[in-house]
Amino acid sequence: MISIPVPVRGAAISSRKTATRSSSETATAIAGTARGARRCSCSSGSKGERPDGCERFRPTARSTREVALLEGFVSDPAFDRKHKDNGGPALGAIALHDDPRADAALERYVAPGNPERMRKQAAFWLGNARGRRGYEVLRSLAAKEESPEMRRHLTFALSQSDVPESIDTLIAMARHDASSSVRGQALFWLAQKAGKKAGPAIEDAIRDDPETDVKKKAVFALTQMPGDEGVPLLIGVARNNKNPAVRKQAIFWLGQSKDPRALDFIEKILTK
Question: Which of the residue ranges 32-41, 151-160, 248-257 would you say has the lowest mean pLDDT?
């Protein structure tokens, strides 16, 4: 654990008497400050988010200093060696600061050349907390990232974004990514995030994807659609798909659903 010297109250600066606290505790404390800085009591803000033109929520010298301090934690080799999450708490605290420097820092940490776990943490926070700027970074990275494992994680990070176009990016990855694993993962998160809008993309994968494994993942993705929206689509797959392995998968998940429509369909199959 890395310790940060904190002068003891009443002691001279030159004194060696110091109290210490862990870097993760410091990151958590600053995260609380940042979380407060991203909220506003003004009635014009949506869900308490910063309204345009609110003077209290412009970047301050203090917020910039805090981000700089946290960047030091993340990039400190000793911190990186000892902290299994590669600076996770500090990255989260950076993400919660309403300061352009936070965007720039996360963009650096998600870039190729950094440890994979650090990149994944940064990608998550770009999607979860950095709005359109974070989405644009993730969209650009998804188009040029060479690592299939990192692209798989980018599908998750994109699913955390509130930017509407993130759904379109997930659809593009589900249709066109070179890795069948990435395509399957994109389908999963599409179903979680987009509901009915995901249906056509998932159906396209079941029908057109060249890999049976991706087709099976797409069938499973239908089970993740909210409110049993996927049940009619599963029935269609079980009834009409030309691939017997895919039909079998659809019937299996229909049996698991306990939906009356699914049970009626299975009963008809069994009584033929």
Answer: 32-41
